[in-house]
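Issue 218. Parser rejects a valid record. Input:
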Amino acid sequence: MDIDAWFETLEGAFEGKLPDDHSLIRTFGGQGWRMRTMGVGLVVLADRDFPYSKPQAFVEAYDRKRPQPHIEPIAKIGELGRVCLTTPTTPNDPLFSVQAAVRDARLLLRANEKGEEDEDFRNDFGSYWSHYLPEGAKAARLWGLSRQVSGIGAFAHASDGTYYCFPDKVSLRRYSSHLWNAVVRDPHQFPIVELRKFPRPERFPTDTETLLAFLKRYTVDGLHAVGQLLRARPRRLPIVFSGTAPNGRVFKIAVALVIRQDAKRRPLVKAHIHAKLDDEEVVRLYDAFPLDTRHLDAALTRLSNRDLTTMHCKVVFVGCGALGSGIAMMLAKAGVTRFVLVDPEILGWENIRRHELGAEFVGEPKAVALKRRIERAIPDVEDVQAVTGSFQQAIEANPGLLEDANLVIAATGDWGCDAYLDRAVSVREVPLPTIYTWTEGFALATHAVLISGKGGHFVEGFDVSGSFKGKASDAQRDTPPECGNTTSPFGAVEAAQSQALAAKLALELLGGRHDGEDVWRTRTCEQSTLEDANGTWTEYWLESRGEPSEFGQISEAAWEF
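Output the parser choked on:
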């Protein structure tokens, strides 16, 4: 059935389904209905994806000066206000979709009329702020301010008019250096002002006079905090307002002040006079503009363990190949803030199908390229160091390399390097947890072994020549005819599964688990992968862990041989 047929069906189905004082009119090119309800013009629209999308409801002639909860003004579509509905999409019953939208809109309008939803103005303050911005509003981008209720921060003003507001100069410079490869040489100060209560949307500041009223009525000594900074006669000043809603949500919104100038672009008042004005007088020398406020660190609220970002964890990576590079990126995204990346190799074309780095980095040292990749992807990481050399060379050049590290992750798959690392951490006075991770041929099994540094040794699982005593698989498929014949083919999917195994163990350790424990965790592959490699499970594995699941599985054991 095409879209016109849907609407004809719905139009007929609505006959007798609405109260007598309602009129239903097919309009908007056959894609909507208009009716009167609660004395308000209500429009229900369905887009071209209907019935596989839900209808939207709008209030006609919406008065922005008389805001209503759960209604968003849409200035670009006449005087419509969108009614925020949670009506589900029901592709198999389009009539129900429209009826439900009408019903839910009527219920909301009735609740608004009774004032039952007014609390939403405070609980969703940030959303209302963005909905009521004037057209063409400039932007404020905030980072690291979620826990700062009041005080002074550092900001930079970009050529496109955006204000970048950070808690201090160090974090602002670090972020800009990582993301834009540029240093903000002269950050300026801005105030963070606490809101003691939230205003309704019609009381949001839109100019200097309404800002003054806002500062006096809703802030804790905000006028004085702003006045102090303005007496230095900055050309522009963002003000970040901070408040906590009744439901516990913390909001930050921003307003910009820009100094008024004469025809020759000079401030209206001389500097020595400007500096002596009182708070209210000095604010009146500026024009005020509400800013479209967004958080550069908004993704932090989606982390399962946000505490990692405040613990300033340092992880040393020995090996930045397919396994190590992916683990490093996962930990950076999970909130780890400091990294040391050690790897002697150059990225080659043979790496790019399963490595975190792609073709744009071919020919560069893996550690250096991965440092750039992490800093660009997660620009608020605190520190990423790249060391181009073997781990032994790195330790000889910098004996303090492991100092203040929380964890070492070895992902080289090289017996000599792992043995050297095992000895280096075992002689330390302060235990240093270390995770050793590697894949068996064709990624039939991946191992992640945590040695806590409190007695256990990684080398106990190997003979003198580095043969692993706990091998899980044997593969009969030929390996690539490369010099030394030390590599085996596997792809990005297998690499990601292997990376996740070690990354999860690392996050558990950094989050406070496995204190003093040695953990040996293994992921065995799916039966289809085993068959593709002409592989079998070893007798040792079958006797100690049993037959692996045909869909792949993770198992764990003590590191004992």
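Fixed in the parser; the record now loads. The radius of gyration is 31 Å.
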